[in-house]
Specification:
168 residues; alpha/beta; Glutaredoxin; 7-stranded mixed β-sheet; 5 helices; 7 strands
């Protein structure tokens, strides 16, 4: 009977180990942030139903950040229609300037999922040192590309990468 229990426990532990190694792993860092509505949001739940997604770190005071998000916004509806891509724009504005984010986004008319990271936890989890910092993930959450800063036309290169991921 004792041998049977040991055998059973060993089999269970083997199954757990196999399940852990075969579970899909995302390259998205784990942190707790807030939505524009002030609700807690765990970044480990960032996904896009098997389609590519972008995580873009920005701040209201960062001109290149705003320029990049404006440029993407001009094409975003077409990008979504063609590839299903989704953008998560993560504001790193601190607690003093965080209250400006929602009216700023509303004024810009951005149709992104906006997340607030006032303590920089997600920023640290993703090893972001400066903004803008843009990450492109495939539908499984695997990091495919990233870039710092912004120059006009970077959004075109980003969309080319998105199309490759989407098979378009």
């Amino acid at each position: 009977m004792k041998k049977l229990r040991i055998l059973f426990v060993a089999a269970m532990l083997t199954n757990v180990a196999i399940a852990q190694t075969t579970a899909p792993k995302s390259d998205v860092g784990h942190a707790s942030v807030k939505t524009l509505e002030g609700k807690e949001f765990n970044t480990s739940s960032i996904s896009n139903e098997g389609k590519p997604f972008i995580i873009d770190f920005w701040a209201t005071w960062c001109k290149p950040c705003v320029a990049e998000l404006d440029a993407i916004n001009e094409e975003y509806a077409d990008w979504q229609k063609e590839t299903g891509v989704k953008v998560f724009a993560v504001s790193i504005d601190d607690s003093r300037s965080m209250s400006r984010v929602a009216p700023y986004v509303a004024g810009k008319g951005w149709d992104y999922s906006i997340l607030l990271d006032p303590n920089g936890d997600f920023k640290r989890a993703m090893n972001v040192n400066s903004v803008p910092h843009t990450f492109l993930f495939d539908g499984t959450g695997t990091l495919v590309a990233q870039h710092n800063n912004y120059s006009a036309g970077d959004e075109d290169n980003l969309f080319e990468e998105i199309k490759k991921l989407s098979g378009k």
